[in-house]
Amino acid sequence: MEHDHEKNDAVGGDNDLSRNSITLTGAVAMGTGVMIGAGIFALTGQIAELAGPLFPLSFVAGAIVTALAAYSYIKMSNAWPSSGGIAMILQKAYGPGTVAASASLLMALSMVINESLVARTFATYALRPFGLEENTLLLSIGAVALIVFAYLVNAAGNRSVSGFSLIMSAVKIGGIALFAIAAIWASGFSGGAFAEPVGMQGAEAFVASVAFSILAFKGFTTITNSGGEIVDPHRNVGRTIMIAIGICVATYLLVAVAVGSSLTIDEIVEARDYSLAAAAGPALGDAGFYFTVVIALAATASGVIASVFAVSRMLTMLTDMKMIPHSHFGMSGSIRSHMLIYTVVVAGVLAVLFDLSRIASLGAFFYLVMDMLVHWGVFRHLRHEVGAKALILLVALAADAVVLAAFTAVKLQSDPSIVLYAIAGITAVFAAEHMFLRRNEADASQRHNHN
Known about the structure:
The chain crosses the membrane at residues 27-48, 54-74, 94-113, 137-154, 166-186, 198-220, 241-265, 289-312, 333-353, 359-379, 391-412, 418-437. Helix content is 80%, strand content 0%.
């Protein structure tokens, strides 16, 4: 009985709050919280660097690829909603073996990478008014401080996360829309990046930029991973995902046009870690600059909090399913509380060790590989059971493959070491999971023979 109680706590989170504690509105706020935190403030400059004057269209392409990808997750979540839902999808598709465990861990790692990306963006915007955004030590301290704050909010329980996400999402979406409309009004559509010529020689780089755009939308997986905690999940998980993607693509387009009308591509690239604040200056003056900084801090803070919430639950489910090793290192409390700590420690280390561009690139590689494994698994093993159309699954798989190939080709030219880091990381995950699961099987076999 005690064991069952512990198991329920591991999967669901807070015993009294976990089941059906997140409303449709709260779930949308949580999903958009992760997406807008990363998409606008961390990635706009890097997308513009690859896509040139066409960078607003990269967000549209990213939304299309994401909507195709969301089909697999929605079909699976409608059939089997659960906390840590992506791990559940992979286990049902591939069985409790190396592929499911490794892909699930890649998803979790891509989410932790996202936390460090957004935390470092938070620090960059916080330091920008003082001209200290190039100070590596202060950037690291600011990023880690936000990650610790996110831990404290999450440790307080689900309703704290949902309520905080709802308030912050309303503040930032309203603020971002206000910034974008004012900047477009001040600058018009004919200046900045949009006055520059568009050439077709950058087609491969444009496709590669979609890898970053997809990262800007991947927050919808936060909703999938919290499926078991959403009210009426069979109905609301799919609705939540599509509403969140719709809100985000509208917001991203507004901001991309505002930034592109205020700054040239060279100026956006130069200020790529704080491009919205840079765009606010010429368009709206000092008041616009400080307003944008405040909105950026709200957006990135809520993004990290929502991401920590989702990844800690996913890791809890992986532990409960015996797909990853677990050690409490002498700590008391539930497995979920341990996973919260592990999540923020790894995110903090990444935020200290890597710059924004490399963090984002690593996250893109991990996420796209995991996403392709989800689509292939649903196509091969589950499409009849969940009523999914084969053509949509294959188109989603092909779209991911094209974007991944283009992104890899571009990174091999500009930063080949990050491609090696990604390959090494993915290989290490599969190898470690294979050894862990084989050892588990051997231990189970020994216990069985002993009995």
